[in-house]
Amino acid sequence: MESLDLSNPTVLGAIAAVAALIVIGIIIGLVRGRKPKELPREPPPPPPEALAEERPKIEPEARAEPTQPIQLEDLVPPAPPPPAPPADLGAFRSGLKSTRGNLISRLAGVFGRDRELDVSILDEVEEVLITADVGVHTTQRILEALRTQMNDGQLSAAEDAWAASREEAGSILASSGQGLAIDQTPTVILVVGVNGVGKTTTIGKLASRFDRQGKTILLGAGDTFRAAAVTQLEVWGRRVGCEVIKGKDRADPGSVIFDAIEKAKADGIDIVIADTAGRLHTKVPLMDELKKLGRTVEKALGRPADHVLLVLDATTGQNAIQQTQLFKDALPLTGIVLTKLDGTAKGGVILGIVDQHHVPIEFIGVGEKVEDLKPFSAEAFLQALFESPEALEPGEDAANAS
Questions:
Q1: Residues 216 and 308 in one domain
Q2: Structural domain total, the chain
Q3: Is the residue at 144 inside a domain?
Q4: Is residue 180 part of a domain?
Q5: In a structure prediction context, what are the per-residue pLDDT tens digits for the chain, which is 402 residues long?
Q6: Do 146 and 213 sit in the same domain of this protein?
Q7: Is residue 145 assigned to a domain?
Q8: Element of type H or E holding 365
Q9: Residues 271 and 314 in one domain
Q10: Are residues 362 and 293 in the same domain?
Q11: Burial bucket for residue 258 (CB in 10 Å: 0-12, 13-18, 19+)
Q12: Quick one: 268 and 349 in the same domain?
């Protein structure tokens, strides 16, 4: 074998080339045989149970102990405030002053504090109620209520008798003072009564009241037989600012009221208040005329009058109960206006009227001013009338009241 000539440049170049190829092969082999480095894996999420165990527990805040123990009275709600006095209680007290002296002070003498309550004193109670113009029918009702409670042992002191009397009076007056419904256009109010009870004045005061309520009013001068009544109604019309429909002297009252209703319907008036001729309730032909007037209203309106108010004078006492019966026979009365209550000791007639005829009291007159025509309040009436004897003013006794 021939030796390589290392001095020959060609041989040396060949050897260098072979060596380079070998080195390149080795490098390529090393690169291909190396495994890639694995990335670190994220650990799997722990199970929910582990999370619950690892979650920190929040301890509740410690409650401060009360400095003082809770008392039983602290748990009891406070007592409600006393009820407010009814509206116009002062006016009722003033208007019933004479009646209160005539009735309550005398009952106080019967139900004396040192006197034992028994059935025998009911005769004295009866006398007091009759003389106070409560009326026989209503007196017997109150006596029966007292007698029943006495027999049952429910009345043992004067305070019990007061409470029982007031409770029975409240039962009688439960339907009164509900107010006049004004829910038709026009609403027609027919006002009736005998001469001298204050009928036309009552109409004027009613018109003033409704005017303050924002209602439109028209007055019908149906008392065509008395020129002074028409003139008086015109004065009220100017004062209130409402129109008055009138006819000629001695014209048919029905025609005047018919015209008033027709005009109210055409003009959209809220309320028509119709005056009627004052008539003696004992005169049958005059009461027949009143029935005819009721039919005329129904013809013009398409329905009966919405309200028929009977005006009574409180000073007439028992006569007012008789008037109610006869006017009730002529027209379906819906309410009573009791005037001049402040000038009489016969205010107990209110109980007799309502109890015997079941016609509610709607207004009472306790003075001459416009605002002295008060809507009736049973609560104020009872509170003013049945005040304890100790609350009576000096001079409010039977002698002064009579």
A1: yes
A2: 2
A3: yes
A4: no
A5: 455 565 666 766 767 776 777 767 676 666 565 554 555 555 555 555 555 455 555 555 555 555 555 554 455 555 555 555 556 788 888 888 888 777 777 877 777 666 677 777 888 888 888 888 888 899 999 999 988 888 888 887 767 877 888 899 999 999 898 889 998 999 999 999 998 899 999 999 999 999 999 999 999 999 888 888 899 999 999 999 999 999 877 778 899 999 999 999 999 999 999 999 876 655 667 788 889 999 999 999 999 999 999 999 999 988 999 999 989 999 999 999 999 988 888 888 999 999 999 999 999 998 888 998 999 999 998 888 876 555 555 454 443 443
A6: no
A7: yes
A8: strand 361-365
A9: yes
A10: yes
A11: buried
A12: yes
**317 and 207: one domain?**
yes
Residue 120's Cβ-count burial label (10 Å; 0-12, 13-18, 19+) is exposed
Q: Please answer whether residues 356 and 172 qualify as being in contact, where contact means their C-beta atoms are separated by less than 8 angstroms.
A: no
Residue 14: enclosing H or E segment and its boundaries? Answer: helix 9-33
Altogether, the residues listed in the chain come to a count of 402
CB 375 within 8 A of CB 178: no
CB neighbour list of residue 34: distance below 8 Å, 6 or more residues apart? none
Beta strand spans in 204-330 (E): 217-220, 243-245, 271-274, 307-313
- Domain that includes residue 93, residue range: 89-172
In a domain, 131, yes or no: yes
Task: Assess contact for 370 and 208: CB atoms under 8 A.
Answer: yes
